[in-house]
Amino acid sequence: MSESMETTIRDRARDLLEQEEVHCVIGYERGPRGDVRPAFIYQAEDAERLVWNQECGHNLVVYLHDRKLPLRKGEEPPRVAIVAKPCDVRALNVLLHEGQVARERVFVIGIACPGMWEDGEGSPLQARCRRCKERVPVLYDTLVGEPPEVEDVEEDWADLAELEAMTAEERLAFWVQEFQRCIRCYACRQACPGCYCYECVAEQVDPAWMGIAIDLPEVFFYHVMRAYHLAGRCVECDACERACPVGIPLSLLNRKIAKEVADLFGYRSGGDPQTPPPLATFKRDEDLPL
Amino acid sequence: MKATTRKDLIAWLTRLMEEYTVIAPAVVGDNVLYKRVASTDEIAFDFTRTDMSPKEHFFPDTQAILAITKGHGEVSLAEPPLEREQVVFGVRPCDARGLKVLDALLLEHQPADAYYAERREKTTLIGLACPEMWPGCFCTSLDSAPDEAGDMDAMLTEAGDSYLVQIVTKKGEDLAASLPLSKASQKRPQPKLSSESASVPSQEVWRQHFDDGVWARLADRCLSCRVCTYVCPTCRCFDVRDDVTQSGVEGSVIQRLRAWDSCLSEGYRRIAGGHDPRPTKMQRLRNRFYCKFHYCPQDFGPVACVGCGRCIVACPVSIDIAEMLGDVARLVDET
Amino acid sequence: MNAEFEPKIVGFLCNWCSYAGADMTGTSRIPYPPNIRIIRVPCSGRVDPLFVLKAFQEGADGVLVAGCHPGDCHYADGNYHARRRYALMHRFLDFMGVDAGRLCIDWVSASEGKRFAEVVAELTDQVQQLGPWQPPQRGKA
To answer: How far is Cα B306 from Cα B93, in angstroms, rounded to an integer?
Structure first.
């Protein structure tokens, strides 16, 4: 299945580039050391580099932020094609809604996704994939692959249960221990499609919300703040957790917020480009527990 | 060649902990890092390569370089307290070379970095030779080797139940005076070299290919995070900011903090007025490689890369410095 | 529970309702605990979650966000946004180790001098019971 999908992706990419419908195809390739990494194809003959398999875990939507400016003055920004899994497309919906990407500038090569391996062939699927209910993207210009069978997966917040059972003090101790390792490298922020502020509050000088220290008070504040800024916008793709060089379980933060957003506002991010996220809107008559 | 037993080594390290801050490879979560250890049980003797270099023990990621107290119409300044003597055990040859590179960059031109200088002076490096080269390692392409002892104060090579000991400097000799040594009964085992290598282009090549399209293609997948610069043994950019720690009617206490920064981050080169000479990812990524392979050799002498391979392993999108060197070398063949 | 512990509470009060209400408390000579430090903002919708986080980071033991009653916002809908924001923040901060009882969002109108005193007294008492909140401490510099 993977192989024929790979061929289809290469064919589509080749066609799009030959017909000059897009300036670039963003997909996946295998590097010389054997690991899968993002690929940018500009020539039709390079489409051979594209691969598709269960190691293609990166969320490529983050790269659309680099494609907003025209190549030459007076032109429209270049059109790009992007290989996108269902979770990636949810992130795209968020960006479409927020006006960061124009729909006509993106050609979505949607993938019917079997899930990503945690650690190479034969290993179990990543946690986010084990929970995934939508194996087909909600938005695409062309769909590659057959929609796989999906069991009726109950929404599983089990990953949060252990923490939720602790007292607030115990949770504080847990997070303090996790954040000790944080080196404030911002890989989490940079890998996230939803983090595109020109100047992040974490680096703002005036006001200096967080100083420059790479130390507990600052990193604690940073992670809480970032998770909160993504409330109702995070699509739980876990790109942040995968990017972290010291293995901090960032998905727990974002998932907790996603759970509460679902509970309070009946909303999950990225379902479509029209619905505004809950913190950007309100209902006059709603009784929220305060 | 001298040797010592594992048992004697462990006893010696335990004794050292009474007088010195002993830093050694230790497991922290899923990583192995150079950490201050309170007992030899914490040392991960069979580690391969730590995830971050030991540079943080010479150039801390966060350091108060001045304490300012204001109150009652007076201002007083206090320098940070003197550092304790340190021993870094288990330094790999690449990391020892990294410190030599930092010495050239931070100490040889005035004003020298006094904080780094103090720690460097008060630290003894007891190295551990690498038994082999691991994926990503290419120290042999940069004038070093998995068993290069020259940049350390003393180096140990594991050989079965014992360690072969090479004393390199007077500092190493003094520290090892209390380590029981006997004549080695075996030759020093040779490390297993890998077939990976990278050719480092000449200065002329870097000069000629500054505007080549290879940089844009490489930067396409860069995320402008800072992981590579933070894990690197020779990257040394920093920011300085004053931080008010206490403020009240009685007065205030302010710390002048120095913390790691990275040339890759988006706002790094932005200056007052908003101008930014390196606004794009491509310019910043290219600058990092040029700094290491062109500007540093030109201005300070050494190439600012030691071939440790940490950036290759840590990069979330597999940007590979050895592969980049190969791409640049290929440009020469094509012109 | 430490009888000598005096909590530090930071209050973000909207100019049109809750700040005026607090003023009414004063002019009516109704006593309320002095632990609260009031910061006036134009609207509860102005209260950025960063303000709340910063207050906790700088040593506050509790935070009050007070605005006009829903439907009465001087700027029409600022407090609806605040309502959503802080309903969520309550739960998330608790998950991060800041007990839910330390953050209070409430609605106080300009004429509710007595109510303001009650809200502050209740929050102060609640935070006093929870004890001081220690933000994560510096380990390095």
So the answer is: 9
